[in-house]
Amino acid sequence: MKTTFDAQITAIVFDAEGAVFALGDGSVRFEDGAFSAAHDGAILCAVAHPSGEGVITGGDDGRLIWHRRADAGVLATSARGQWIDAVDASAESGLIAFSAGKTLTVLDAKDAGFRRDFQHERTVSGVAFEPKGRRIAASTYGGTALWFARIAEQKPTFLKWAGSHTAVTFSPDGAFVVTAMQDSQLHGWRLKDQKNMRMGGYPSKVRAFSFLSNGQLLATSGAQGAVLWPFVGANGPMGREATEIGFDEGSLVALVASQPKHGLLAAGLSDGRVWLADPAGQGLNFLKADRGAPITALAMSADARRVAWADEDGNAGVAEAG
Amino acid sequence: MTDKIPVTVLTGYLGAGKTTLLNRILTEDHGKRYAVIVNEFGEIGIDNDLVVGADEDVFEMNNGCVCCTVRGDLIRVVAGLMKRQRPGKPAFDAIIVETTGLADPGPVAQTFFVDEDVKARTQLDSVTALVDAKHVMARLDDSKEAREQVAFADRIILNKTDLVTEAELVEVEQRLRRLNPLAPITRAERANVPLDQVLGLGGFDLGRILDINPEFANPAHGEAGHVHDEHCGHDHHDHDHGHDHEGDDHAHDHAHHHGARGHAHEDDIKGISLSLDRPMDGTKFTAWLDRLLGEQGQNILRAKGIIDVSGEDRRLVFQAVHMILEGDLQREWGATERRWSRAVFIGRELDEAALKAGFEACAA
């Protein structure tokens, strides 16, 4: 499938049925042609709903909306209409978390009355559930706050590291938290002892990171190839070297996508190409070999069989991986 | 790829008239679409435009540059604004950033030079400082931020001129000039300045550093680089009022210079103008400038210059914000043009004699 939209594609998500494109004009387009125009403004972030049906989007209109093929409904609004910058959801716990300004909010997909608001000293840049969906990491300036998702009154565990953290993720085994930083590096913490891990050497900011191969590898963008950090054993990447695949001097890997349980990695490049690779094997399989505008969104389906991409000119496509 | 979106920064302390000016920019019938980043949600917000609240989240970069502070909220908001971009069309015609009265303009400006994403999509156009003619003297006395905002600006709007006498205005203008000899001063009542004096100034654009006149920053009418500033040139060093002031009926009365406040003001910030009539050694000059910004960049708010390099037919132009330096060889010197080097450094506790000696030692 290939198509062109007249607005920027700001995120792509796979739900149980297929690819879903979230656009800068506030609309959501399903791969099968279904359309939902619910936001008054741009969609800033998107994630698959915990039920597997449809997508949850956060907008610059301060609304969090659940879009399904037949209808859409507002799940929550932010205080004073602040931009909703980040969202995550956990199929395991059925919880949804989003951030607006300094506030992290947790909702329960099955209980409309449940809402928790957690305050931070600085603006929250990213949110991520731990694999079981019971704790949430919120990245901010100066580190990452860890919250228990359901508890109303609590003091978070704050993982400190000087600098501006711009995104956060949990390792699939729940043992590590990793952030991307403003100054072109990653930072990690081993949770059991809060040991710091510095993962640097990037020529550019890291916009995307994703675990694959049962959590044994963390793939990132931000270099001429896709960077792979080993997360094997209790020490994770500590004392180990990263490897790089698909190195190409003429372009940067802008985005990566993968699934923790599968071994395939997709990369979208600054020159518009998209490739798929098995880090354990050889070579790159170009899903989009023609060059063009930079890739701005990339996603892989849960079964790792399909990859969806979009570029800055509004072109989008879904390719079969296998 | 679409063109970079110009960004205009408005500074000024509370009550200087920023909100009035913003409302004018947004309501005037210009057919443009603006995004306005305000420090909190105010009373503005017009149909076609977008007003975004930001929280002045200043932080230091971990890049080893001590004065490299940026505004994290701007990085985030600009990235969000760009999501409204449609293929082939810019998201907005311009972005306007309003700062709080206590804000240091440095981190705002540096954000547009330091962050790779912001830099790829936007171009810092200029910083405009609004000052209130009635209260500015007291603010400059008691507020470091007020002095920095004036010193940092590409243009100063002297607002509420109807509330003070001509003599007071002349005195205010002299002090503003000493703080910032580069920025033209525009007088205004209720922020009624033409929008082309606020937007599209190209204050950081090397290609628009056309002329710098050390004794008189805004060159006279008819000369290259003159900005049509209806009240140009009240610096008491300048008595060249032979040219026409369009629509300007004030008397050129220089008898007020020694009023009550008079020359008693010695601000910690001042602009230092340097010039040299002999060609310069390009390598020596570049090394001197690099060292100067490296050692004193924290104290240097802005710098601009045009240099006559020995053996080079083109003009070397540069501009700096703290330690961030941009320089380029620009157009060729004209056949009849006076070839000379001049530079202005605006900063805190600058040693004028040392700067002058260092500058002149770069002669070829």
Helix content of chain B: 25-40%
Give the low-confidence spans of chain B.
216-263
Rg of chain A computed from alpha carbons, rounded to a whole number of angstroms: 18 Å
Oligomer: heterodimer
Outline the structure in words.
The complex is a heterodimer of chains A (322) and B (364). With 322 residues, chain A is mainly beta. In chain A, strand 24 and strand 25 form a beta hairpin. By secondary structure, chain B is an alpha/beta fold. Chain B has nine helices and 14 strands. In chain B, the strands form three sheets. In chain B, strands 3-2-6-1-7-8-9 form a seven-stranded parallel sheet, sandwiched between helices. A five-stranded antiparallel sheet of chain B has the order 10-14-11-12-13, sandwiched between helices. A two-stranded antiparallel sheet of chain B has the order 4-5. In chain B, strand 12 and strand 13 form a beta hairpin. Chain B is globular. About 13% of the residues of chain B have low confidence.
Brief rundown of the structure:
Chain A is an all-beta fold and 322 residues long. Chain A contains no helices and 30 strands.
Explain the layout of strands and helices:
The complex is a heterodimer of chains A (322) and B (364).
Chain A: E1 2-4, E2 9-14, E3 19-23, E4 27-30, E5 35-37, E6 43-48, E7 55-59, E8 63-67, E9 72-77, E10 86-89, E11 95-100, E12 103-108, E13 111-119, E14 126-129, E15 135-148, E16 157-170, E17 176-181, E18 185-190, E19 195-199, E20 209-212, E21 217-220, E22 226-230, E23 243-245, E24 253-258, E25 265-269, E26 274-277, E27 285-288, E28 295-300, E29 306-311, E30 315-320
Antiparallel strand pairs in A: 1-30, 2-3, 3-4, 4-5, 6-7, 7-8, 8-9, 10-11, 11-12, 12-13, 14-15, 15-16, 16-17, 17-18, 18-19, 20-21, 21-22, 22-23, 24-25, 25-26, 26-27, 28-29, 29-30
Chain B: E1 5-11, H1 18-27, E2 34-38, E3 50-53, E4 58-60, E5 69-71, H2 72-82, E6 94-98, H3 105-114, H4 116-121, E7 122-132, H5 136-142, H6 144-152, E8 155-159, H7 166-179, E9 185-187, E10 269-276, H8 282-296, E11 300-308, E12 314-321, E13 324-332, E14 341-348, H9 352-360
Parallel strand pairs in B: 1-6, 1-7, 2-3, 2-6, 7-8, 8-9
Antiparallel strand pairs in B: 4-5, 10-14, 11-12, 11-14, 12-13
Helix pairs in contact in B: 5-6
